[in-house]
Each structure stands twice: as C-alpha cells, then as structure tokens.
Amino acid sequence: MLAVDPSCPLTDFITAWDFSSPLAWLVIAVTASYTVGLVRLQRRSAGRSVSRARAVYAYTGLALLGLSLFGPLDAYAGRAFFIHMTQHLVLALITAPLLLAAGPMSALMWAMPEQLRLGLGGAFARQGALRAALSFVTKPQVALPAFIGTFYIWHLPSAYDAALRNGAVHFVEHATMFFSGVLFWWPLIGPAPLRSPLSYPQRTVYLLAAVTPKALLGAIITLSGRVLYRHYLSVPDVAGIPDEEDQVISGLLMWVPGNFIFLAALTVLFFKWYQSEEGSLDGSPRQSPKHNGGGGSG
Length: 298
Hints:
Elements: H1 10-14, H2 22-44, H3 52-69, H4 72-75, H5 81-102, H6 105-110, H7 114-123, H8 129-137, H9 140-154, H10 157-165, H11 167-189, H12 200-223, H13 243-281
Helix pairs in contact: 2-3, 3-5, 5-11, 5-13, 9-11, 9-12, 10-11, 12-13
C-alpha cells in the first residue's frame, strides 16, 4: 500500500494513486488490450459488435478496479476500516458485475495475435478444457459458497489483520475478493463464452440466498460492541473518527449499501423476467435467459 500523509487532507486522498505498482501496470495493460481489441472488432463488424453501454461498463469497471487496487481506496485501507470495507465492496459487488455485464471476452481476444486467439477459442469451445473448468467454478452450488465463504474468512480478525500487516497476504485477500465476486455474479449475468444455466426465477432465488449471510456478517461487525481488528488501534484516526465508530460505519456499509446493491440486481432480474414472460404471452418468440444473459457477446 502507498504511504500517505497522516493528516489525510482530501486532496491527498484524491491524488493517492500508485502508478508504479505492478497491479497498476496490469490494469493499464488490460485496459489498453481491451481498447485495441474493441477497435479491431468494431472495424471488422462495421461498428455493430459491441454496444456503447457495454463499452461504458467495461471502462467503468476497469477504472473502479484501479481505484481499488492502486488508488485512494488502497492507499488508505490501512488507515481506516470503513475505507477498507468500501474497497472490498467495490471489488466484489460493483467492479465484478460491471466487467461481466460488459462481456469483454471478445474484445480481449481480438487484441491477441491470431494463433493465440484461435488457441483460446478452441479451449473455450464446447468440449474445451477451459470451458469445462469455467463451467464447474461458476455453478451456483460452487460460486455462492465460495463468495460467502471468502467474505467470512477474510473478516476473521486474525486474517484481516494479517492482510494489513503483509503485502502478499493483502494481495491474496483482494484477488480472492474480486474473483469470488466474478464467480458469484456469473450465474446471474451469464456473459460469453458461458451463458447462465439458470432461469430468471432461479436467478432470483440464487441472489436472495446471498442476502442473509452477507447482512449477518455486517450485523456482527456493527453490533460487536468492541474493536475486532486490532490493527486500527495502532494507526491515527482518519478524519477524527474513533475506532469504535469506524467499525460501526464499516459494518453498516456491508449491511445496508451491500444489500441495496442486491436489491438493485433483484429489480433488474424482475424486469427481465417480466419482459420474457410478456414476450411469451403476446406470441413473440420467448428468449431463454440461458441464451440472453446480461453480458452476452452480441
């Protein structure tokens, strides 16, 4: 994590970006690759391949990934629990679904040399090894426990404090937060190359199954009545917020805004479900969500 001025003025927070970080190089490289592939794909298909909305999702998701991994949220994560909690929520509950909804696979593949693109295309084909592995890890019975378990494990006081003390552990924490978020959202969004096997009612039940465990963890942190994470006792308070209040704010962030994100996703699912049912009633061909997931390659 980038060293910051303990006085924590707002300008220092806004400008706390570490572009020398390997993670910065990685995110910038992925962004550049996506842009190159997007241009190639749009030229090949006369500009009809990737919608403007999906491109906005991709660039917004990549910007938030940078904000979380080498920007202000990472720079101040060790100074305030509520900032660290915000970082986790942005990674798992906002960035992951945005990138899936963008369906960036086709653009990223078109940024690659032809032989590599053809090789990966074969691996993701119906009988390909990568497709089989992806199909397994994105099964609801795998993805949901992985997502919930990751949040519970990393919010154990010993694991949380270890991540703040050790840069390598901190990296693993954020990598697992992000990728478990990707696995969790995949059955709901169903981007290419692997569509969701769930109907809209099944997606609704799946999403609801995550609400209570997530809210429970937020409630435990909020109502614990004592400081759970000892690391924050050894650093100056940010913006004059005492450690006990910092922890209450953090728990509420997971509890309330986290559930609002799920509520927003439920609302989107409801309207998609309604549209699919309305289409079947008026006699138009009914589209299965399995082939009409939110982030298709279109």
